[in-house]
Amino acid sequence: MICVIYRSLKRDQTYLYITKKDDFSRVPEELLKTFGQPQYSMMISLSDRKKLANADIEKVKAALSEQGFYLQVPPPVESLINEHLASNKPTKL
Hints:
Elements: E1 2-8, E2 15-18, H1 29-35, E3 38-45, H2 57-67, E4 69-72, H3 80-87
Antiparallel strand pairs: 1-2, 1-3, 2-4
């Protein structure tokens, strides 16, 4: 299975995977509007891989087969305040 990956110029760390280069016919129009002009990133074979850097390869394959695209969004930002408070808890003696 071949997949073509595009990155969003509007949204940092957001990628769109499709099955054919420059064929966005199965991608919803609203998604393309929020994604912005797709910028070609790379073409890869999913058959030759066991995993992807930031996406579950089985979810990508399933989405491509079922809906014709997969949208990879950045992981949620951790709350730095909660992290700071947790690391500064006084220890009991």
